[in-house]
């Protein structure tokens, strides 16, 4: 099966500092792929390079058969590659509804009402707080809002950058259950996380990024057979 997203030999960084060192990664249509790694491994740099927020030094980013390596970020969004960034980054002084509507600014505008109804179906709490300012929401609700804003753009692939960061254990369970439901609905997801156990429980395949390079890759079962991986990332 052809890859929906294909990252080939990707190198990138900031100034003269190289962060990504020849990364190869693929996501096929309908897959949930976990990208795992500790802080500083290069996960967010990979997200931002794929999303054209950080320029690639070399290598290729191919999405839906189109080479997006030198594309602008708006062109990446219009192609249907949507990132939900780490830290939620909602607009605190705008209402929940206004934040969601901004998600359809570059893509999905014609079906904004239908997509809004879908988001409220996925996140009933957001419907209840539709007119509430986003800055007054709890951390879990803001994460729901950030994901809902991404869904408003009708993603072909949704990149979730550390969606469990800063959430209570109960909300972490709810967040991963939600990602599992989106996967069941056929949405392709690149899940970028430090939470190895939860991520491997819902992923079809996984990659482990270490010092800007892919260290391990395979199915969750294959990765869990690696004593080195379990020792380094699972503490067992």
Structure report:
With 236 residues, the chain is an alpha/beta fold. The chain has a domain of 137 residues: P-loop containing nucleotide triphosphate hydrolases (Rossmann fold), CATH 3.40.50.300. The protein is 37% helix and 28% strand. The protein contains 10 helices and 10 strands. The strands form 2 sheets. The chain has a 6-stranded mixed beta sheet, sandwiched between helices. It has a 4-stranded antiparallel beta sheet with strand order 2-1-4-5, with helices on one face. Helix 3 runs parallel beside helix 6. The chain is globular. The model has no long low-confidence stretch (mean pLDDT 89).
SSE topology sketch:
Layout: E1 3-14, E2 17-28, E3 32-36, H1 43-50, E4 56-63, E5 66-67, H2 73-79, E6 81-84, H3 96-102, H4 112-122, H5 124-128, H6 139-151, E7 157-161, H7 169-184, E8 188-193, H8 196-202, E9 205-210, E10 213-218, H9 220-224, H10 227-234
Helix pairs in contact: 3-6
Helix percentage range: 25-40%
Mean pLDDT: 89
Largest pleated sheet = 6 strands, mixed
Read across the widest sheet, the strand sequence of neighbours is 6-7-8-3-9-10
Overall, the morphology is globular
Radius of gyration: 17 Å
Order of helices and strands: EEEHEEHEHHHHEHEHEEHH
The percent range for strand residues is: 25-35%
CATH topology of the domain at 1-80 and 158-167 and 190-236: Rossmann fold
